[in-house]
């Protein structure tokens, strides 16, 4: 693992008109048993602050792969990815994880909640990493859980919650540090219509009121139609 001093993060190049993120000619392939699998061929699009973009496409079309690159969890094989004025392509791991921790919230297909922790504690985890004191952390976690309709489940552990409730805890956790970018992979996949509407309300509110960019992968036409814009992935290409 490499460590870098904070000043080594490149100076962001921002202008009022520049989008929060831009990918250009992005490609990603994997090697499996010596064979090359091309998943993303040519992805080009941008997302502005305050905007909600839905990514749609068939199963296996590369949506989660693309989201992992946008979340700086994975590196592209080619092309460029500029996030918040920083070209991430050549960045070392330390700088990437700092950008990720400070600016990106995730709601994954799997919820990745900590099993032996309560909902309140799970939502507080990202704030522990950024040094928010305990009382403030708990107050903020409680407020977020109430906003996703889980004010009555603050002390439940993941195994005591339904799939949809766990998904809502994951959303509250993603919002806890007020990230500039929220990446959500099928956030409403496990939910009934009412909870699904609530999750989308939250994501849209985060974009409008907190000036965040939201990228949401979905198979649900009702979710996609609430987005400001739809990016479709077809055979690894955006359109
Ligand atoms: N680490 C990996 N190694 C090899 N192949 C991979 C890897 N990750 C993904 N793939 C392949 O890339 C393709 C796209 O996967 P991805 O998970 O991005 O699809 P998706 O569009 O999110 O599908 P779904 O809607 O089912 O979630 C799949 O065919 C998958 O097998
Ligand atoms: Mg996927």
TrEMBL record:
CDD domains: ABC_MJ0796_LolCDE_FtsE. SMART domains: AAA (SM00382). It comes from Nocardiopsis alba. It comes from the Bacteria. Keywords: ATP-binding, Nucleotide-binding, Transport. Gene3D superfamilies: P-loop containing nucleotide triphosphate hydrolases. GO terms for molecular function: ATP binding; ATP hydrolysis activity; transmembrane transporter activity. It holds the Pfam family ABC_tran. One of its GO terms (cellular component) is membrane protein complex. Residues 21-239 form the ABC transporter domain. This is ABC transporter ATP-binding protein. PANTHER family: ABC TRANSPORTER ABCH.1, IMPORT ATP-BINDING PROTEIN. InterPro entries: AAA+_ATPase, ABC_transporter-like_ATP-bd, ABC_transporter-like_CS, ABC_transpr_LolD-like, MacB-like_ATP-bd, P-loop_NTPase.
